[in-house]
Structures are given as C-alpha cells and as structure tokens.
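#onboarding

Welcome to the new folks! Below is a worked example of what a typical request in this channel looks like: someone posts a single protein sequence, and someone else replies with the predicted structure as tokens. Don't worry about understanding the tokens yet, we'll cover that in week two.

Example request:
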Amino acid sequence: MPIKFAAIGLNHSHIYGQVNCLLREGAELVAFHSPEDDLAAQFEEKYPQAKRVSDKRAILEDQSIALVLTAAILNERAAISIEAMRHGKDVMSDKPGMTTLQQLAEVKRVQAETGRIYSVCYSEHFETRSTVKAGELVAAGAIGNVVHTVGLGPHAIRNNQRPDWFFDRPRYGGILCDIGSHQCEQFLFFSGTDTDAEVISATVNNRANPTHPGLQDVGDMHLRTPTTTGYVRVDWHTPDGLGTWGDGRLTILGTEGYIELRKYIDIAGQPGGDHLFLVDKKGTHRIDCSKGDLPYARQLIADVLNRTETAMPQVRAFKAMELALTAQKMAEVGTVWQQ
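Example response:
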C-alpha cells in the first residue's frame, strides 16, 4: 500500500517539488491546509486529488496520514513540524527547517522524544541529478579524498513576485539560514561527516536593495572539518539575462582530481542542466546527468514504512541547520540585523 501524505503550509513554491518527488515514487497526496486562498487555489488546481481542510487538526488527527510536508513561512516551519511529530507523523520540511537555534533545539528534542523522522528536503542536493551523481563518483574514489569544496548559490530576486515576509529578517531567517543551508548540507555530505564540522567565519550584507532594509542580498561562510574546508557564497544578484533562476555551482576538490557541477545552466556551453565535469589523472570528462537517478523520495518512503534511515542521516539534517544558523548569528554581530 502506498503511504498517504499531506501538506501544511504552501508559502514557498518548493512545496511543489516536495509533493512531486513523492508522487513520482507512488505516494498518495490526500489533503492540505493553507489559510491563504490564492495559494490554496493554485495547489488545488495542480493536485485535485488533495482535499483542502480548514483546520490542520483534520490532517494531524488522521491516523492514515503518515507524512506531513511543510513549506510554510520560514519561521513557522519548526512549530508545524513539532506539532506533526507529536501527533505521530513523520515530517519533510522545506529548507530551512527553522530560523533560530532555539527552534532547532526544540525540534531536536521533540524528534528524540517521539522517534519520528524529521527530514529537510535540501533540494539542491536531493533533487539535483548532478549532485547525486557527484556523490556516487566521490564514494567510488574518482577524485581521491575530498579536501575542499566551493558552493555557489546565486538566486534571482524578482522583487515584484516576492511576498512581504521575504524581506522581513525575523520571518525568513537571513540569507545564510535560508539558501545557505543547502550548501551546509552538501559540505557535510561531501566531507564525509554528519557531525564534526564548524563555522570559521561568515558575513552578510545588503549591497543593492536599500528599499528593503530587512533583506540580506549576499552572504558567505567558511566551514571546516578535521579533514576538509569549504567556502560558500549565496546571493540574490542573478541578472535577468541568465535565463534561469540561478547559476548554481559546486566544486569538489580531491587529492587525485576535482569535480565541478554546473547544476542549472552551463553558460556559453551545452544546453540544459545537470552538467558534471570531472578532471582526474586520465584527463577531463563531461558527464550528462540529466537522466540520472533521484533516490531521496524513494528512500524516504522506505524509511517511513520500515523505520530506517537511508534517505539522509537524522543527525545531518540537524547539523546542516546548526551550521547555517551559527553562521547567520556570527555574520550578524554588530549589524542592524543582530537578533
């Protein structure tokens, strides 16, 4: 029997990717809750099989629903996840899963108490075929031991399409918490540790959006483990002429070679996305990953059914957010955004 799942909070369009990856693997979407009529109408049109409920308790108290998804406003996600776990549900949250270290501590406590699965859909890894392929190559020893990563996460701001909460620092959590959490998860994954990492330095700034003083439009951080270091830059400066929402890239340096991912576009190169370049002792190689496997949702469904931990180690889901939130706090010291 397929697992049944529902959504609470549709405020970020990532909810569609979350739903689609589960539907692709045979799970059944049965219900959703959204107080916003416009967001609900769009969702209902896309997924007519899902019943809109006016009270989220209709989802939380339905014992046939195994998994709750959320892409609510960022600072509301932790409370939704906690409530779902306390009602016996597993959770798939959009990133970031929370916006403060205090929320992180509470989610960790409730997850430990309930034994539920708390998963964050870090889509720049789990729903990006080139990143999945890079993980396979690194695991196979294609570039030796990983010693450094560079993660670049540029995004298009598209001001006229953004809701008010997008520019409100307490509600979106800051740029390193938000889009930087993607990069923290990938740094842990490619460094081969789910726990032993720290933030060395971090900065945030608003360089080009003075009419939105709550917005941070660029940020960076420097990370390390006992065997690797990593640099991350995230921003809202993608120009209109790019043709996609961001030129996301990841470079993984090993002792015997390196890999570069051009995830969403290869500017002045081959069309499409999911380009992987491998340089090793034998030469340079381009690998088209556009038809590669995406195992995350399939593994998560199996974890829900079998109470296993194959889609992502629970500790990594938390550690990635810990790094992002720690970097965010560090970067804001002495700034107008300091919490």
